[in-house]
Design brief:
Elements: H1 2-24, H2 32-38, E1 42-51, E2 57-64, E3 66-67, H3 69-80, E4 101-105, E5 126-127, E6 130-134, E7 142-149, E8 155-162, E9 171-181, E10 187-196
Antiparallel strand pairs: 1-2, 1-10, 3-9, 4-5, 4-8, 6-7, 7-10, 8-9
Length: 197
C-alpha cells in the first residue's frame, strides 16, 4: 500500500505538467491566413526546349528561378509609383517598360537574388512573342512569356527576364542550368511562368 501512496504524487505531477504543455501549445500556432499573407511573393518557373533543324527535341530543362531584388523593387515601383523620397528610385528608375524581354547566355555562375545581369549574354534580348495571362476566381494569377532563339553553335546555360533590350535595364528573374549544346541552326524556346502567390 505504501508503494501506491508514493506513486500518487508522481502521477499528479506528470498530469499537471502535461496539462500545462497541452494548454500552452496553442500559443505558438499560426493561422493559415497569416502564413499566406506573410509569404505572398512572385514565383518564377522557366522551361527550355532545344530542337534540331528538323524539329526534334534534343534537350529539355525546367526549373524554378530566382526573382531578383531589383525585380521586386521594380514591381513595387510600377504598382505604386516611384517613391517621393528617392531612396529606391534608382532600382527601377520609375520606368514603365514591361518585364517581357527574354535573354539567354553562356554563363555558369549560380544565380542569386542580388543579380542584375546575365553572366555572359549570348546574342541580344528579345521581346516575347507569346504571352498569356491567366486569372480565374480564387486562383493565383500567372503570366507566361515565350520566345524562340537561334543562338548558333554555343552552350546555353542561363536565361533572364528583363524590362528592355539595352544595357541600362532591370533584370526581374535569372536562372542557370545544365548547359545545352546548340548546333548552328538549332532553336531554343524559352517559356517563363511568373505566378503571383
Amino acid at each position: 500500500m505504501k508503494n501506491y501512496k508514493m506513486l500518487i504524487p508522481f502521477g499528479i505531477a506528470i498530469l499537471a505538467v502535461g496539462g500545462i504543455i497541452l494548454g500552452t501549445s496553442g500559443l505558438s500556432s499560426v493561422s493559415p491566413a497569416s502564413k499566406l499573407s506573410d509569404n505572398a511573393m512572385f514565383l518564377g518557373h522557366v522551361e527550355l526546349v532545344a530542337k534540331d533543324p528538323d524539329g526534334n527535341i534534343k534537350a529539355y530543362r525546367q526549373t524554378d528561378n530566382i526573382v531578383t531584388y531589383v525585380g521586386k523593387n521594380c514591381a513595387a515601383v510600377r504598382i505604386f509609383g516611384a517613391p517621393t523620397n528617392g531612396t529606391q528610385g534608382t532600382d527601377c528608375g520609375g520606368g514603365a517598360n514591361a518585364m517581357n524581354w527574354i535573354a539567354i547566355g553562356t554563363g555558369t555562375a549560380a544565380e542569386a537574388a542580388t543579380d542584375t545581369a546575365l553572366t555572359a549574354i549570348s546574342g541580344s534580348k528579345s521581346q516575347d512573342t507569346v504571352r498569356g495571362i491567366i486569372n480565374g476566381s480564387n486562383v493565383n494569377p500567372y503570366v507566361t512569356l515565350q520566345q524562340t532563339f537561334t543562338p548558333g553553335a554555343v552552350t546555353i546555360a542561363e536565361a533572364g527576364l528583363f524590362d528592355g533590350s539595352g544595357t541600362n535595364v532591370h533584370m526581374f528573374a535569372h536562372k542557370t542550368f545544365t548547359g545545352i549544346g546548340m548546333g548552328a541552326t538549332d532553336t531554343l524556346t524559352v517559356t517563363w511562368r511568373i505566378t503571383l502567390a
